[in-house]
Write a structure and sequence with these properties.
The chain is α+β, with helices and mostly antiparallel strands. Helix content is 39%, strand content 27%.
Length: 77
């Protein structure tokens, strides 16, 4: 499953999200694309106050504080 992680540098919540995705990836196949919002003005404006944001198939799965249970449920149901 293709997954986008919108993040930026020096973001502790983004580090946590990255870790949660890696943990879920142990149970479910994920093709993770990390997108640095600071490299695109439009994306930066859209997600600036919301990061980290995890999206799949055009749907936001979770944002802000990311937790394992929510991700696992989203990717296995």
């Amino acid at each position: 499953m293709k997954v986008q992680l919108y993040s930026r540098n020096n973001c502790p919540l983004c580090d946590d999200a990255r870790l949660m995705l890696q943990l879920v990836k142990e149970d479910v196949y994920l093709d993770i694309e990390e997108i640095n919002i600071e490299e695109d003005d439009e994306i930066h404006e859209k997600y600036f106050l919301r990061i980290p944001v995890i999206e799949s198939e055009g749907k936001i799965i979770q944002e802000g504080r990311i937790d394992y249970a929510t991700l696992l449920e989203a990717f296995t149901s």
